[in-house]
Amino acid sequence: MILNQVYSCEEILQDMKELSETYTDFMTLRTMGVSHDERPIPMIRIGLGIDSLVLTAGIHGRESVNPVLMVKLAEEYAKAYAKDDNLNGYRVRELLNRCSVCILPLVNPDGYEAATQGFDALRNPILRQYCKMRGIEWEHWKYNARGVDINRNFPCKSYIQQQLGEYPASENETQALMKVFEEYDTVGYIDFHSRGRIIYYYRQAMPFAYNQKNHKLARYMQKLSDYNLGKREEEYMSRLNGGSPVNYYSELLKKPAITVETIEENARYPLDPSYQEKTYREIQALPLEIINKT
Questions:
Q1: Using CA atoms, how far apart are residues 149 and 164, in angstroms rounded to an integer?
Q2: How far apart are the first and last CA of the chain?
Q3: SS3 53
Q4: Closest by alpha carbon to 16, among 106, 108, 84?
Q5: Strands 228-229 and 198-200, how do they pair?
Q6: Cβ atoms 24, 84 nearer than 8 A
Q7: How many CB atoms lie within 10 A of CB 172?
Q8: What residue spans of the chain are helical by DSSP H?
Q9: How far apart are CA 157 and CA 155, in angstroms?
């Protein structure tokens, strides 16, 4: 995958397919679900470790940089694994044989297509018209094809219904990610978003010891990325900020769940693909560091 370019969902999926066909000894590709506009929600798993670290991107449609970076990450990890090379000083094969990495680059493929190509990219005419009627410019679209914010749809203590027809885990995309958490033995979860170059670790519903461990891991990640650490009070800027997958994962499994916000705060949508190369350098080693420390 070449950075600093815009890719469609189909191109991202094709790259993932080619990777899995190239590295069959230690890589698998699964479809964890299907979106409301009938696009696959793919996951690539790298390594032979029984436990897994889960990485997600593309939960918000308009955050178009991180999905490309997740596929690039899979590609670079696979190359280093196959050659038994070091990557940023990490022994990739050794780490991924201890703990695999499950990568879901596009949890919300419909939102990604709408935010990168416009609402006419949606196939279902009813969903297409509904999205257009919301009065939101397509470049700023962060929702799925039913207009639901997947980042607010998980069944946890902080969930609040935000529109009619929505309920906890009502969306196909939400259910696909929950399926990953249920079917795999995991050591932690990193959710990549795109606003502010900040690492959020604090989970209000979790006890002090949990947040202390999360904070320690976030500090390791901060040193590698040079991002800021989010403040405790920033977890919920309003009551409507709950229901996220990191909230759900932390409450369900009591294991580390961290949000990494890439890209500077004032970046305009649609995000310029030139952000990809710099951001990739910032986050490339973060999953390897988490595996190394867990």
A1: 13
A2: 29
A3: strand
A4: 106
A5: parallel
A6: no
A7: 21
A8: 9-22, 65-83, 92-98, 109-117, 125-133, 172-183, 208-225, 245-253, 275-283, 286-293
A9: 7
CA distance 227 to 219: 10
| Closest by Cα among 190, 254, 186 to 50 | 186
CA–CA dist 207, 196 (Å, integer):
26
- For the chain, counts of helices (H) and of strands (E): 10, 10
- Give me the residue spans of the domains in the chain: 9-110+143-293
pLDDT per position as a tens digit, 73-131:
999 999 999 999 999 999 999 999 999 999 999 999 999 999 999 999 999 999 999 99
- Confidence bin at 234 (pLDDT 50/70/90): confident
Whether the pTM exceeds 0.85: the reply is yes
> Amino acid letter at 171?
E
Predicted confidence (pLDDT) per residue in 129-168, tens digit: 999 999 999 999 999 999 999 999 999 999 999 888 999 9
Q: What angle do CA 15, 195, 35 make, to 5 degrees?
A: 45
Q: How many C-beta atoms lie closer than 10 Å to residue 16's C-beta?
A: 24
Structure tokens at 32: 């964890």
Sequence-distant (≥ 6) Cβ neighbours of residue 9 within 8 angstroms? 39, 106, 109, 112, 113
Dist. CA 171–CA 58, nearest whole Å: 15
CA-to-CA separations, 227 to 94, 105, 195, in angstroms, rounded: 27, 21, 11
Q: Does domain 9-110+143-293 have CATH number 3.40.630.120?
A: no
- For 16, the token pair is 């993932």
The DSSP bridge pattern shows strands 257-261 and 186-193 to be parallel
> What are the structure tokens assigned to 2, written together?
């070449």
